[in-house]
Amino acid sequence: MVTDGVSNLYATLTMNNSVPVLNEVTRILNSEIEYYRNDTFLQYASVLLQPLPRLFTDRSIERGGNVLGLDRYEDDNIIYQLDLAWNGTQNDTKAHSLADKVMGDVTTYLKSVNALKDFQYINYAYEKQDPLGGYGPSALGKIKAASAKYDVGQVFQKLVPGGFKLAGAGSGNKYKR
Fold this sequence. Notes:
Helix 1 runs antiparallel to helix 3 (about 90-110). It contains five helices and five strands; from the N terminus they run E-E-H-E-H-E-H-E-H-H. Strands 1, 2, 3, 4 and 5 form a five-stranded antiparallel β-sheet that branches. The protein is an alpha+beta fold. The radius of gyration is 17 Å and the shape is globular. The model has no long low-confidence stretch (mean pLDDT about 90). It has helices spanning about 20-35, 55-60, 90-110, 135-150, 155-160, and strands at about 1-5, 5-15, 40-50, 75-85, 115.
């Protein structure tokens, strides 16, 4: 998105909620942006950490569940949202490279300590991610069945531009290293 000459992007993942994990993913971001400290293209680089406690899933299950696929996780988790903003479209390549590096390094670390979850919050997902696939096969099957039943003409899948589409769901996430 570009507003007043400033572009931005989000990328997301979900991870275990633990102090050592949070410390390391913070260190990774700080290390990556240090390289750009004296470069004026970057307006800011920030991370939002949103709690995703098991309690939310338990309450959802009590009320009939949902299609996010969170019921497969027994532990407390955190949604990690990378938010970058930079000056001008001429710096798009540099900013996307930074996002790729941060998300790739964070993903690699989380996998190495068995802390990465498949779930990706769709509102924060980056164009290279697969948030619908991150809901898991069972939940994705329910979403596809609902789409077939209530959107027979596939208006939302074929005629509405943008967004993540069911046809591409489950095709993979660039950051699954």
